[in-house]
Amino acid sequence: xxxxxxxxxxxxxxxxxxxxxxxxxxxxxxxxxxxxxxxxxxxxxxxxxxxxxxxxxxxxxxxxxxxxxxxxxxxxxxxxxxxxxxxxxxxxxxxxxxxxxxxxxxx
Length: 107
Ligand SMILES: Nc1ncnc2c1ncn2[C@@H]1O[C@H](COP(=O)(O)OP(=O)(O)OP(=O)(O)O)[C@@H](O)[C@H]1O
Ligand SMILES: [Mg+2]
Known about the structure:
Layout: H1 13-26, E1 32-35, H2 42-46, H3 50-53, E2 64-66, E3 72-74, H4 78-85, E4 87-88, E5 94-97
Parallel strand pairs: 1-5
Antiparallel strand pairs: 2-3, 4-5
């Protein structure tokens, strides 16, 4: 099962995503959560300490390659990406982070 959560700012996307991920993991499902927010904070909801966030590698562009049909495909298996880039929370949810902000821009 794949679930994508999107919606307007501050509507509870992170809270509900993290809660669902933890409940599914507690029930014995293998859960991989992907934080696609440019200012990621799903780790906190998953119970992962903020100090661990800094050491987490983000996903690089060269992990994707174009297919002849114009789509995109992974250059590694999902298990390889999980092994090298994810961290695991207290309920067993694995987390991947797409990007970290490197500097603040002007508003
Ligand atoms: N069901 C709820 N009842 C009351 N407060 C809630 C509920 N769900 C989330 N909140 C609170 O609303 C705020 C926004 O929630 P959350 O960060 O999950 O939203 P978001 O959609 O991920 O926001 P953003 O767009 O900034 O990423 C938080 O302070 C959160 O604690
Ligand atoms: Mg959010």
